[in-house]
Amino acid sequence: MNFIKKLEHIQKKNSSLLCVGLDPSLARLPESCRAQSQPFLAFNRALIDATADLVCAYKPQIAHYAAVGAEMELLSTINYIHEKYPDIPVILDAKRGDIGSTAEKYAIESFVRYQADAVTVNPYLGGDSLEPFLKYREKGVVILCRTSNPGGSDLQGLEVDGEPLYLKLAELAAVSWNENHNILLVVGATCPAELARVREKVGDIPLLVPGIGAQGGDLAAVMQAGLDRHGAGLVINSSRGIIYADSGEGFAEAARQAALELRDAINSHR
Amino acid sequence: MNFIKKLEHIQKKNSSLLCVGLDPSLARLPESCRAQSQPFLAFNRALIDATADLVCAYKPQIAHYAAVGAEMELLSTINYIHEKYPDIPVILDAKRGDIGSTAEKYAIESFVRYQADAVTVNPYLGGDSLEPFLKYREKGVVILCRTSNPGGSDLQGLEVDGEPLYLKLAELAAVSWNENHNILLVVGATCPAELARVREKVGDIPLLVPGIGAQGGDLAAVMQAGLDRHGAGLVINSSRGIIYADSGEGFAEAARQAALELRDAINSHR
Q: Is B139 annotated as catalytic?
């Protein structure tokens, strides 16, 4: 089953557009996890078990693992999801981007080594830099389009032929690059008007939306701006707001509660 | 010593603007390396020992290691250079890019975990996404500017205020982001006229130029277009043309010969 079908399937099954970011930092883990030989894995397993009926995807951010040499814990986390909850796709948040044979290696990293169902990529190097990812037809390729950080406009907001660069990128992705129907786009939550312009440009291409919760986007406006014609087509990511909902030993139960509330809040706007 | 000073020092000491890319692929290694428990490390050590008096930097491309779980061999390669040839800086070619706390983690990956002297980064997310790297004042931050792949123009070539995006980026990097004087830019070798426009825009900021050798750029034109006012300011990278100069057991000696020829050819145009 291709990634977008897999995503649609679990979105229906779990009545959820919520994606939980698995971005552990050692200093923020509860003592019981830090005491384990694989603290990130212990933390993630508890979070996954507590939320698996409430989410449409998990999104581990690879830098959190790479910074401390925890590649094995990342791999074990992804394996754990595949084995125990095979319906739930894993989006590896890596924001890779390179050309030619090096891009091939990055695609192997994401799809073969880590067995991710989808990966985030950076489009600055152009369409042919994405081909080595896109040719994995059953995998999802989540292209950075519009980010909501203060400097996001430095390049993305520059005007090209009367419209901002990120809309030009959205058009390229939707019209020129999506032959295998496996593209998604990342669009931040902090400016719903921009999200609406991207949605208008790309039809029903799913949008991954970070910035709800810790980064403070307005959920109602995001939903109104981003839903596709079928009242879906969004993957709303929250990381810290869920995984650190409680900093102590009640973290998993607190994560479940936070995920439940956010899932239901999302659904109340569909 | 900051990265750019370190680079200038070794460029003078070794009379060299040549950077060798350490991008091993298992299938292309000679049998004697493949037989080792750490084949990439064995290959790299031989290449390094054969070329250390001829180069101004080594540039391992991280995807080649990450694709096969060889992080330890990457780390050992960098350690080997630091210990045996402490004058030669290591540029980790990772093309990272993310925002906020995640960008911090990527900077830790490059500068703390791997102890690289510089790292390549992707600017699509804007100036604040680069700050977590730039604040390591003694490290180099090598920003993708203009790449020479066929799709390089998809975004980089779009016209913004009458000039291509990559020149806008070059200006941002030189004028707004370079407070710590630790920025370099990546500019491909295949279009010297574009290289000249970047050089004109950025003064003496060093340019990392891939695409000589295997990718076929014209060396004389590149040198004329890219040299700074002091007849330097370039880091000319070659990977496959050097490391695979001979596919058999004579690989290290062949690499030395190829590096010597390319170094001298570069110098003949200074």
A: no
CA distances from residue A267 to A59, A85, B155 in whole angstroms, order as listed: 20, 22, 36
Residue A100: list chain B partners with CB under 8 A: 149
DSSP 3-state assignment of A123?
Answer: helix
Q: Looking at B5, B84, B95, B105, which residue is catalytic?
A: B95
The helix/strand/coil state of A249 is: coil
Cβ B174 vs Cβ B205: under 8 Å: yes
Give the domain ranges of chain A. Answer: 3-267
pLDDT for the residue numbered A252: 98
Asked if pLDDT for residue A215 goes beyond 60, the answer is no
Query: What CATH architecture is A3-267?
Result: Alpha-Beta Barrel (3.20)
Rg over CA atoms, chain A: 18
Q: Which pLDDT belongs to residue B10?
A: 98
The pLDDT score that the predictor gives to residue B85 is: 98
Global ipTM: 0.97
* Spatial CB neighbours of A263, under 8 Å, sequence gap ≥ 6: A14, A15, A16, A17, A18, A54, A55
Average pLDDT, chain A: 96
Question: B113 and A23: CB-CB below 8 Å?
Answer: no
| Percent of chain A clearing pLDDT 70 (strictly above) | 98
Half-sphere exposure for B252 (CA within 13 Å, toward CB): 14
> Residue A216: which pLDDT band, with cuts at 50, 70 and 90?
low
- In order of B134, B165, B175, the CA distances from B179 in angstroms are 9, 22, 8
Please report which confidence band the pLDDT of residue B58 belongs to, taking 50, 70 and 90 as the band edges.
very high
Does residue A35 sit at the B interface (CB-CB below 8 Å)?
A: no
The CATH T-level fold of domain B3-265 is TIM Barrel (3.20.20)
Alpha-carbon span A143 to A126, nearest angstrom: 11
Place of tokens 């003949």: B268
Instruction: State the nearest Cα–Cα gap between A266 and chain B, in angstroms.
Output: 25
Residue B21 half-sphere exposure toward CB, CA atoms < 13 A: 28
Which amino acid is it at A213?
Answer: G
- Structure tokens belonging to residue B197: 């426009």
Angle at A220 (CA atoms; ends B124, A178), nearest 5 degrees: 40
pLDDT at A24 over 70: yes
Query: Is the pLDDT confidence value at A213 over 80?
Result: no
pLDDT above 80: residue B16: yes
CB contact under 8 A, B127 and A96: no
Residue in A6, A12, A13, A95 annotated catalytic: A95
How many contacts, defined by CB atoms under 8 Å, are there between A and B? 165
**What per-residue confidence (pLDDT) applies to A190?**
87
